Amino acid sequence: MKFLRQKFLHENMLSKHGLILSAFAIVLGTISLIEFICPQTMLGTIIAIVTYFLSLVAGCAFYFLFTDRLNHIVEKHELICAKEGAESLRNEKSGLLQNIIDNSVEGMVTIDESGIVQIFNPACERIFGYAAEEIVGKSVSILMPEPYRSEHDGYIRAYCKTGVTKVIGISQEVQGRHKDGMPLLLDLSISEVKLNNDGRMFSGFVRDISERKSVEDQLQTYMTELEWFRAEAEKGTRLKSEFLATMSHEIRTPMNGVIGMTELLLETGLNARQQHYADVVMRSARALLDIINDILDFSKIEAGRLMLEPMPLDFRRLSQEVIELFSVKTGEKGLEMLLNYSDDSARYVLGDAGRIRQILFNLLSNAVKFTDKGRIELIVEGLESPQNRLNDAKIKVSVKDTGIGIPQEVQGMLFSMFTQADASTSRKYGGTGLGLAICKQLAMLMDGEVGIESVHGKGSVFWFTMILPMVDENAVAMVQSEPVEKAKPESLKGAEILLVEDNIINQEFAMEILKSFGCRCTLASDGRQAINCVEDDNVYDLILMDCQMPEMDGYEATRHIHEYFMRRNLPPVPIIAMTAHAMKGEREKCIDAGMDDYLSKPFLKKDMEDVLMKWISGVFDAEVATQQRAEAEVLDGGVDMSALEVVRELMKDRYAEIVEKYIGNTDEVISRIGQVFAGDGDFADIVMDAHSLKSSSQYLGAVVVAEAARDLEMTAREAMEKKRPVWELRLCFETLKKAWHDVRDLYIREVEG
């Protein structure tokens, strides 16, 4: 039928061409029939014409009736087909939707305005433990614990009345109830569907997050406990550090007496037996001091407080100096010790000479200790630097020996704290087991690592690497060249020294040393006595101040003494700290209190001599002491010209070159520090640059610049620890720039001759 309509019917139900053709067909058929029946007469002709006309009308009427009926049939058929298609599509979509609902991993529950459940999918069955037939047609509140169950219907009524909601369209955590009564923690999202009859339905999508929440709660509990343990660990580390600092002070104080008095004893007339006993005491005391220092280093490393102090150094020279320290021991054992310094290894670098020397000394000391015959070789070779540090040198240092070797099974433990190869090694050779562990930490601070290659009974190779910035030879010469001594110890004769010390043994030791230098010494047992001595108008050339004393400690006494000098408008007297504390920050604490230098206990006679020679200028005797104290240091615009003369004598033809290098280096340092302030502010770079500038300025007599650099270094260290504001650091930098501006022309004149 559809085919016929498409072929013969227009969309407007009637085709003009179809009508003509139909009528013509009917007329022809009628004429043919009439001609066959009617005679050839006039009446027959009239009848035929009338019949023709009637046939035509009848044909048209027939066509209209037939096509209308045909169109009605076609439309009815199409309507039936459309309804069948829509029903099929609806069934298909309904099945797809039901399939989605049934297979959803999230629970879906749909309710009407009365809170009656209409849909309850299989995921909800798994979550709540109910079958769908147990829930559908019942109130959704059955899935809730009290008090939410009793209040739920009120929530729906209030929303339907006011349209105000706080839950629709958002995700929230809610309480649910399992069929067995167990509580559930659910993640619920609610959406609203408005119906054609002005009704509405609500669909909720739920996920059981009870297990996830339990894990999160456990994790939170774990993190809380971890934070507590971290705080306790930090507290324990702090208490341990404080304990070690206290024990260091308590041990070093009597050690100062033991070492000091033994040193004085060795300078007296002793017979061979007495000399031997005194030597044993001195060696034992120094060995004990080494152990104390190792424990302190271990404590600093553990607390993350060990910091490097880089300076330009000649690494080849440093390596040779360390080897020479073992010449006596290797000679006694008949060992050969060699330095093999590769040509591809950098020589002039920026590093902490003291800490590098500590690693070398430890490794070489172990090699000498565990080698009875053969040779020991210190090998230095260059490695390829990392891509991002092309201006740095990567150096590998190996200590190769022909000693007892180390079993494979214990090699991995050697760099751990308090660990040695075995107990018999400790009994036979001694040691704390800290040395290699400290070497490992020091190498890591220099971006390096450590390792061992050994075969038991066939010797060992201990090695470490470090990555250090490269410098030129001139920078090393400026910093490390030793200036000519201005005076000899005999020139201290007649100097007035105020010794502030509470320990009787240390009093006696220090006074004996001072007397041996020809100094005149006044003793004070605590800070108050020291203040009284100064305020009694006594004139001193230097004050040796112990830090830990009863009544009043050295820090407070120093502040009072400085205030006294300022009130009286008197020139300050150098105050040298004497302390048995050796923890990080102690030196800075002394400087901040107004002390000028730092002498760590236990100290030797040479240490005391160096400090006195540094701070007491000129030749002292009873007749000229007053005159010498009145003479001011010869300065030209903040430059110690006598220091420049020393450098001139030392460097001779290279004097102008060194001064020129100093000018260029100082300009670069000030420029770099200025760039730090202009950028993000890496205060560690300021510390390093200021420290280097301080040393080179002292060496070349730029007293004011050196002082400004020292203040900048100290302030930068404290700014890194958030103890000083950044504006104070900027102020120190401005002071440094002004100091350099004031003396720069003088150094240019020195270069130009």
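The above is record 1. Record 2 follows with the same two-line structure.
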Amino acid sequence: MIAKTKWIAGVVAMLTVVGILVGPAWGGQAGKGPLKVFILAGQSNMQGAGQIKANPKRNGGKGSLQYIVRAAKTAEMTRHVVDKNGDWIVRDDVWIWYFDRKGGLTAGYGSNETTIGPEFQFGHAMGQAFDNQVLLIKIAWGGKSLQKDFRPPSSGGQVGPYYTEMLKHVKDVLGNIKKHFPDYDGKGYELAGFGWHQGWNDRVNQAANDEYEKNLVNFIRDVRKALGVKDLPFVIAETGMSGHKEKHPRALSLMKAQAAVAKYEEFKGNAAFVGTKDFFRPKEESPSGQAYHWNSNALTYFLIGDGMAKAMISLIEGPDTVATAGHPDTQAAGWSDLLKPDLSNAIYPKGVWSVTDGVMTATKDINLWSKKQYEDFMIDLEFKTDKGTNSGVIVHCSDTKRWIPNSVEIQIADDYAAKWAKSPKTWQCGAIFGHLAASKQRLVKKPGKWNRYTITCKGKVITVVLNGQKVTEMDMSKWTSAKVNPAGDKIPPWLNKPKAALPLKGHVGFQGKHAGAPIYFRNIRIKEL
């Protein structure tokens, strides 16, 4: 914000991977090569047991895909998987090959045509993330161990027959893409990543458990060598089937081994571990009580796929991706969308803001506010700048007509643009505008990349986390002057009210197209404290 600017707020559906849930349309261009190829492998939980059809006799249908696309808490995050008639969308920009099934990605590529696995949301997220045609090669069999069935050559002993079979299928599909997918344009492919979700058969055997870390390290090395991609991005999804209540020592040991592999120095920046315990849903909220298959809960498989997608995109694109570490799980209890998809619970002039594919932006520099006022709360969101963007998030706004002195702004700016790079540090991204600079500058990504904010307002203290790092903490009670900050620097004259005097209950807002440059928001979630 600068001088007499005006503000706007966003609303969002989840995008993810980082973050990366998508809206009802997709950014990919169907058939455009070279293909982005992702291999998804493992045992029965990679196959997927998430029930599609709601069975009223099983907890009223809870946990089924049909249920979660309709339920108030999950409808927004899953709206991209159905069309206006409520039918499952078939993506033409994401192909999937899974043994005897192949075609455009849709529901029904789980262990059978009545279920989904991680491939479902993983594929949706990849289709949104890349312009190129995406191809998923899914290879999974139930009841298979890494110690024996998938045993890699470097572990010694007999090579696992399913390790050999897995590579055979990958090479067959890549050698006959046109045969499997007639719309392929012949422009080649890029092996872009490998996703792994497996572990049950190793965790029930002590010997297999003991050597799991070694076997997984060798598996990654050998797969990369066999496929000819030195640092092929590799994502490991935790085998966390009983969630945080898991107490069995072998289960805990195996999960610890999976997490440890991603920390190897040789895998830094090219392998990632995705914790899944948060995704567990109890049997009372699920189609079954089959804990080793995540209670057949489609939401769980959806979230696993989303987590894997976020991690994969982060590995592929490097640091210019949405952070997850250092930020809360906004799908946990207590979190909700700040604004409704139709903005019916917001205050703003009609025709200024629009939502497309879950991303909100504005054509003018005009405010949009939450109708509801909040006091103690956390707000978590993603934002993307353009060249020259200057925007922000407003909290504690008690007067929407005279909001500039009667609120607190957490600054958003393209710190790489010359006019903002040369501005005072209290005007740069992560700052409490005009009052307190962020502890780190240029932590915001360059224009066109998504960033993440978590802003906590508790009493008179405002804490800001930007892209996984705490950058600001302001105790408003120390700002007793409207002219000079506690550090001695001058406060911009238009902020002519001491922050210590502001009411703590107020509207939440977002700034729009200020200084001629747009701003984009998505995934805006709030939790009252």
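Residues 35-59+94-317 form a domain with the Rossmann fold fold (CATH 3.40.50.1110).
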